[in-house]
Structures are given as structure tokens and as C-alpha cells.
Design a protein that fits this description.
Layout lengths: L1 H14 L1 H6 L50 H9 L24 E3 L2 H10 L3 H7 L6 E3 L2 H13 L8 E5 L6 H14 L3 E5 L13 E3 L4 E3 L1 H14 L1 H6 L6 E3 L2 E3 L5 H4 L8 H14 L5 E6 L24 H11 L7 E6 L9 H8 L12 H7 L2 E4 L6 H12 L10 H10 L4 H11 L3
Parallel strand pairs: 3-10, 3-11, 4-9, 9-10
Antiparallel strand pairs: 1-2, 5-6, 7-8
Helix pairs in contact: 4-8, 6-7, 8-11, 13-14, 15-17
Length: 442
């Protein structure tokens, strides 16, 4: 029986096209022995806690999630017998370290970047992973070099010439790639306006009210939330940038030459929409700092919203003040003097967009038929950037090394287990990570 199972497994791997591509005799560049595990930190080393840890009490350092999985007694024993991994040897995710030679390397996000991510918020699935360690990290991929290359080229050109739509199957790593782009931009002096999902802009979770002068439905609470996030994530830069003209918001006047920090300081629901518009206007006209507008789960902007008008007619996103403002930059009706726009759709979201699906299915911009549909017209202007469906072998190795740095996943991964999970997941980044995490009883 055992021999039969082994033969079946061998044949399955041998017949798989991906197995032939990787090679059955492939060997990873990390050891499968326990001696390869990172040594414990030096005595007296400060214990750090993940900013996304749910339980920040005693024993929560390195990860608050240890002991939450299927672990039971096994995880308790791990807490007692395994020292925290020493992650001090991991390099920072910085421009100088992102090279072709670094593909597959695990790099740690800097503390300023993590603080910005904390202010802007990040996708729940990524947040769950970050909660496992005090040093959230990422794996450099060939796509990482592609997206950082786009940012390097666009830092001195208008955003109208750099509008990209990330395309790839579910689980290929679009959200992580977008975060890598945001991190790179933050570390190279950009203003970063990042949203982990555009669903909150259209899902009717915040109030809306019709504005007759603007012929739009304002979303005051939502606008106030975005201003707060953007200001917190770009605090140092907003202190340097100045307003371009004097403005009055109700009883508050912001003089010309005031800092953007002052502009965003006294915001309430009455003036939040006007302040958000003023903020984006001043950011679009200044040329000292390039601006990145990065939107995940972006298909929500290209489908009917959950909001309705007084007659209960469903509202389109362009009838809502906040989505419309963003769509004006995406469409090129407005532009940042220097900057870039990156959009990533989610294929597992409950919110779908027919226009987005058609755009992703079209191989070239010319393949998109002319349409009177606003969403289709806007999406036709975006350049599609393909995210590889499969991990390269060294990228997969990097994911294993990253997983092993988390408490509960530091058990050795054998060559056979590595290849089996790689083939079973067909090289899909999310599925490969999950299969190894489950295999290691995360």
C-alpha cells in the first residue's frame, strides 16, 4: 500500500508540466535541517511586538498569532522550547537593495513604512500575515522590479502618462505587489495615497447627502476618514508642502502658503469634502514631490454602488463625491504634475465589474471596443501590467524562508515537501504559502 502511494505521487509529479519545468531533482538553496534555523537573539535584545498583533500582552512578541491555529498543546510546547527567531540579519526593503540579484530575497519593511501602512490600513489577508511577526517582510519578485521601474520612470512625469492596471489570476500577488510599490514610493520621497480597498467608497457604510451646487452626493464621514489617513501617512511631507491659494471652509480660513498639515488639521464633517478636494488640488499642482495614487480592490469603482438616491435609484460611483474625485485622476481629467496611478482588481471580492472583466480580457488597448459606458472608456486608457501567474523557483524559496521566520513555521521543510506543494499549488503565490503554512500547522 505504501509503495503504491509513493508510485502514485512520483507519477503525479513526473507527469506535471510544472514539475518538468522546475525539475524533479531541483534543490532549494536553504537547508532542510534544523541546524539552519535562525539562532536566538542576543541576550538583552529588545522584544518587539507586531503593530498588527491582536494580543500585545506578555508573550506576544514576535507574533500574537502563535497558538491560534490548530496548535493546542503543540503550539504551547513550541512557545516553551523554541526561542524567537533572530530576524536582525534580514535586509531592509530599500531602493538600493531591489536588484535582479535580490529576486527571491526576504526583505523587511522599514519602521516608517510600517507606520504609514498602519495609518493607511492594509488588506485583511496581508494584515493577518503581518501579525505573525514584529518585522513584517516581503519577498522580492521579478514583478517587484517591474513596478519599481515604473515608479522610477514616472517620478518626473505627469500621472496621465503613468496609469497602470495590475492583471493576474487570483492569488498571484497583486495586493502584495501594490504594497511593495507603495513602500518603494514612501522610501524614495513620494506622497502616497493608498487604499486597501475601494469597496468602502461605494458600499453605503457611510452617510451621503445631495449637494445641489455640485450636483453630487457628498460623503462627509468618508472624506474625513481619508484626509486623516493620508495626513498621518505623509506627515513629514505635508509639513513641507504649502497651499497654493487661500481658502475658506465655513468659519475656518486657511491662508495661502500654509502647510498641508495645517490644511488637514481642523477638518469636520461640514467641510471634509471641500478640504479633500483642496488637498488633492494642491498635491496635483506642486512639483516638489511625486504622488502615487494606489488603489486595491479597484473594480468597485467601475460598477454600480450600494448607495441610492431619494427615489431609490442605484447611484453610479461617479455620482458620489469621493469616488468621482479619484476617477477624475484615473481617467486623466485631472493629473498630478509628477506621479503615477496604480490599480489592482480583486478577483475574490463579492463586488465585481463587467467593465473591469472586459478590460482584463482584452490583450491590447486597441482590443477594447469604443463604448459610451464611462467605466469602459476610463479602463481602456490604462496600461495593463501583467503579474506572473506562477512563482519563479527562487521566489518560492523566498516564501519558504519568510514563513520559517514566523513562530510556528520554523520547522524544516524538506525538498520533497517543497516540490510537492509547489506543484500542487501550480506555483500560485497565495496557494503555495497557504499549503506550506497548513503543512507546518500554522
Amino acid at each position: 500500500m505504501l509503495a503504491c502511494c509513493r508510485l502514485h505521487q512520483s507519477l503525479r509529479l513526473e507527469l506535471s508540466p510544472l514539475a518538468r519545468q522546475v525539475g524533479l531533482d531541483a534543490r532549494r538553496n536553504f537547508s532542510a535541517s534544523s541546524s539552519a534555523l535562525a539562532p536566538p537573539p542576543a541576550k538583552g535584545a529588545a522584544k518587539k511586538i507586531s503593530p498588527w498583533a491582536k494580543n500585545k500582552g506578555a508573550g506576544a512578541e514576535e507574533t500574537s498569532a502563535a497558538g491560534q491555529g490548530s496548535g493546542g498543546l503543540g503550539n504551547v510546547l513550541s512557545e516553551v522550547t523554541l526561542p524567537p527567531a533572530d530576524l536582525s540579519h534580514l535586509p531592509l526593503f530599500q531602493p538600493e537593495g531591489i536588484t535582479p540579484a535580490s529576486i527571491g530575497q526576504v526583505q523587511v519593511f522599514s519602521q516608517p513604512t510600517l507606520a504609514a501602512f498602519k495609518a493607511l490600513t492594509i488588506p485583511p489577508l496581508v494584515q493577518k500575515e503581518f501579525a505573525f511577526t514584529a518585522k513584517p517582510s516581503t519577498v522580492i519578485r521579478s514583478a517587484t522590479l517591474a513596478i519599481t521601474g515604473v515608479l522610477d520612470k514616472s517620478k518626473g512625469t505627469p500621472s496621465t502618462s503613468s496609469r497602470h492596471l495590475l492583471s493576474g489570476p487570483s492569488g498571484s500577488g497583486k495586493s502584495v505587489l501594490l504594497l511593495q510599490g507603495a513602500s518603494y514610493a514612501l522610501s524614495t520621497g513620494w506622497v502616497v495615497l493608498y487604499l486597501p480597498s475601494t469597496a468602502s467608497l461605494v458600499d453605503s457604510t457611510t452617510p451621503h447627502a445631495y449637494s445641489a451646487p455640485h450636483k453630487l452626493f457628498h460623503q462627509p464621514v468618508l472624506a474625513q476618514q481619508l484626509i486623516s489617513r493620508f495626513a498621518a501617512a505623509n506627515k513629514a511631507t505635508f509639513k513641507k508642502l504649502k497651499t497654493l491659494r487661500s481658502r475658506t471652509f465655513g468659519e475656518v480660513t486657511v491662508a495661502e502658503g500654509a502647510t498641508l498639515e495645517e490644511l488637514t488639521r481642523n477638518v469636520d464633517e461640514k467641510n471634509s469634502t471641500a478640504v479633500l478636494e483642496a488637498l488633492l488640488e494642491d498635491l496635483s499642482q506642486q512639483s516638489n514631490f511625486p504622488v502615487l495614487l494606489a488603489l486595491d480592490d479597484a473594480q468597485c469603482l467601475f460598477a454600480p454602488s450600494s448607495y441610492v438616491d431619494p427615489s431609490y435609484q442605484v447611484l453610479e460611483p461617479y455620482s458620489l463625491a469621493v469616488p468621482r474625485l479619484l476617477l477624475e485622476f484615473i481617467s486623466g481629467a485631472k493629473a498630478f504634475t509628477k506621479g503615477s496611478i496604480l490599480l489592482a482588481p480583486s478577483l475574490i471580492s463579492a463586488r465585481t465589474s463587467e467593465a473591469m472583466s472586459r478590460r482584463l480580457a482584452a490583450k491590447e488597448v486597441e482590443a477594447v471596443a469604443p463604448s459610451s459606458d464611462i467605466s469602459t472608456t476610463i479602463l481602456a486608457q490604462l496600461e495593463v501590467m501583467n503579474v506572473p501567474a506562477r512563482l519563479e523557483r527562487k521566489e518560492a524559496v523566498g516564501i519558504v524562508q519568510m514563513l520559517q521566520s514566523w513562530r510556528g513555521t520554523r520547522e524544516a521543510v524538506s525538498d520533497d515537501s517543497f516540490l510537492e506543494q509547489y506543484v500542487a499549488s501550480d506555483g500560485n503565490a497565495r496557494q503555495f504559502s497557504r499549503s506550506l503554512a497548513q503543512n507546518q500547522q500554522l
